[in-house]
Amino acid sequence: MAAKITIPKNNVTPASLMRLLSLVMLISITTIVIFSGLGIYFLFNDYIVKRAEADAISMSQGFVALNRTLILTQSQHNVLRPSLDSTQFQKLDNTLREYLSPFHVIKIKLFTTKGLIAYSTDRKIIGQNSYGNQSLNNALSGYSSSKMQTKNLMTDLALESRFDVDVVETYVPIYNDKGRIVGSFEIYQDMTRFRDDVVQGIVLAIVVLLVILLCVAFIAFKMVQLPTKQLGIVQEKLQYFASMDSLTSVFNRHQIFKILQTEIARAHRLNCKLSLILIDLDKFKTINDQYGHPTGDEVLRQVAKKMLVEMRQYDTIGRYGGEEFLIVLPGTNRTAAVVIAERVRSAIQELTIVYHQQKISISISAGVATLSPADSSMDLLIKRADKALYEAKDKGRNQVIYDFYDSTLANPLLSLASHDLRE
Length: 423
Known about the structure:
Layout: H1 14-66, H2 68-71, H3 86-100, E1 105-112, E2 117-120, H4 134-140, E3 145-155, E4 161-175, E5 181-190, H5 195-243, H6 253-270, E6 274-281, H7 284-291, H8 293-310, E7 316-321, E8 324-330, H9 334-349, E9 352-355, E10 358-361, E11 364-370, H10 378-394, E12 400-402
Parallel strand pairs: 11-12
Antiparallel strand pairs: 1-2, 1-5, 3-4, 4-5, 6-8, 6-11, 7-8, 9-10
């Protein structure tokens, strides 16, 4: 079975960038929608509060203008009546309820300048002091103020109980004829009727915003997607050319070394076997001299192709340099490595290469080495395979030699002879 060549990829790829872009878009859209929804909600609330405040000011000013004698004394100071007898109270109560009933007012209070409650639709609290109420103090200083609240239970002007009510509480100053502040209104307006309008407005605004954002994101994604795909294709090609030998279509020297280093580290970590085969084409220089370099290139291509067929799927081959190849055999002991090397040697020996009507036969010599605990680096393992390869060449070529490493030797690596026999 042909060995599968896998191109190592960097962690950052166009595909991963597109996934990151999609994630950023999703997070951005979600964040925009959430904060926009909150912003729209606060805008609606602010609008309702300001509208209620304007209504409260108009109502209080209108009531004072029409019923001044009911709430102000007739003395020269013309101040808010601090107390009312039963007749005055009943008349004021009836007048206020009749006047305010069309305006969705639930409750109303009248405060004196000293913070005393002179009148309230809730009679139980009349006479109490609201000293320390900042909103009341602001109104007594001439500034109206309002805020939205949700009440679990309130009793309206018709003495009916209201549950889960949205109210705007507004404090409005009361002026006498001389323009002097003589008290304050506190008006509770029922704004629950706007709750559905607020929800519908927020939902509609968010839906419109979401559609716009999705359209923009889709257009942006499509605009980026095409060049990113093209970039991915270019990157894959660059990775291929950076990792592969252009002549033989196997890994180049740099990449096969990276793979071997990774496998050595894994073998040491997991305490598993690892072998390698160093292969050299016999008398390759003679082929170049006799038939020319283009023929020599074709021989290298055909030999590499044949070796790929004879290797296992999880083995890896690379061009070591010139006419030399390096095969990495993960999880392989000495016996299995020699069997594979012999199978490759035999297949190459039986291979006949036809190029420009020339029939060419070729053989290989192979050195096999198995990783030992003492092999702390890639160089040590390769040197042992290289020593075995040199021995195969020295003994007549076209054979496989295994480097029998003796761990008892103080210096297991012998000095390497020159490569004069490698033609």
